[in-house]
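Run: sequence + flavin-adenine dinucleotide -> complex structure.
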Amino acid sequence: MTNERPVDLKEFYPSDLFGYAEGLTNGELTVLKAVREALEKHVKPVINEYWEKAQFPFEAFAEVAKTGMMDSPLLFEGREGSRKPSELYNVFLYFELAKMDASIATFYTVHGGLCYNTILLGGSEEQIKHYGPKITSFEWQGCFGLTEPDHGSDIAGGLATTAEKVGDKWILNGEKRWIGGATTADILPIFARDVADNKIKCFVVPGGTKGLTAEAIPYKVALRPVQNGHITLENVEVSDDTRLVNINGFKDVSRILRATRADISHLATGMTAGSLEAALRYVTERDQFGKKVGGFQLVQEKLAIMQANSVATLGYSVRLAELQEQGRFIEENSALAKMHNALRMRETVALGREVCGGNGITLDTDVARFFADAEAIYSYEGTHEINALIVGRYLTGIGAFI
Ligand SMILES: Cc1cc2nc3c(=O)[nH]c(=O)nc-3n(C[C@H](O)[C@H](O)[C@H](O)COP(=O)(O)OP(=O)(O)OC[C@H]3O[C@@H](n4cnc5c(N)ncnc54)[C@H](O)[C@@H]3O)c2cc1C
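>> structure
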């Protein structure tokens, strides 16, 4: 028997000073190594160019997807029969993707997080078997249509898109906004209010269905490669078997958001580590006053804060993953983790930009991309305020949303 690991953990995860990656299996590390190699080879050389031109690098992403990051048998050793890899692997997959680029990680979370969890938590056994493998193999690209032009934070009570059953069909009408990947998605889970019982239901609308249009939101200053769609549904007709049978009210949507909010806390963890790495690359090469910028005490203090944030966010993510794996995590856990990790990420990307000086505002140093993208992560999947209100309600017993 050998204890050999596919990678040297200290070298592979230098910012993981408390050794959180030690719990990963060799199979998981093998896949994560392949993901990193694919990101380095295919995404890194083109990401700034795609960010600048606000287009998604589909070809590069396809190369990353080929690593089997959702469905490699290596991820299911010891958990055969499970539909998802371990939660710890999930943390480090987001860590890897977001450490390279937040748009790549966001595109993934819309597909492999939001869409896949909607199918798993909302679908019947038959529906899971129909959609699941096509999602995990990336054959079909999915998205998640919840937010509307007039309802963001108050979507639970405000959701205005309607669904009406006519014979054995459903007719959908309304608008959705900010839907990541919507312009190219093969399947679009759309949340709508059933006019008969006023309950929120979900329909997996095939891309290209008559009456459905999705236009990319222009002029974004964060996550520019991700096409966020403004969807219009005009008498969109779908069959009854597209309705996910286990979504029968906002409480079921909340179950999905609880899981996907955890994903975003991991994504923020990856961005924190990514901006630290990008900043380190710069300060160890740039000379001022005859020595490396990284050799000044004031710069090192900022780097140390970034490192501390990296360990703290990883700590939140990994403990959250343990609770998820044990099936005993609650809404407050993921709200707290998203709120904390996004705050620390926001501080870290700003420090990263700062230590790179003027060059920190150009895409050349990578920190600029993290800095701009952080604003979107800070606000999506429950804004800072909404997650703080969930924690505040837990602390005081008083709901302060309204
Ligand atoms: C890049 C990006 C990608 C996204 N992707 C998707 C997606 O794929 N699918 C999807 O369905 N949605 C998506 N969203 C939508 C996202 O979830 C919403 O932006 C978010 O829920 C906030 O809603 P809002 O933008 O309408 O802000 P609003 O709800 O209008 O909030 C504006 C401000 O008011 C604050 N606020 C609101 N209510 C309260 C309150 N009660 N107390 C205190 N403060 C309050 C908010 O915190 C915020 O600061 C995405 C958004 C972005 C920016």
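>> summary
The pocket of flavin-adenine dinucleotide is lined by residues 110, 143-147, 152-153, 178-180, 223, 228, 376, 379-381, 383, 385-386, 389, 401 (CB under 6 Å). The domain at 9-136 is CATH 1.10.540.10 (Butyryl-Coa Dehydrogenase, subunit A; domain 1).
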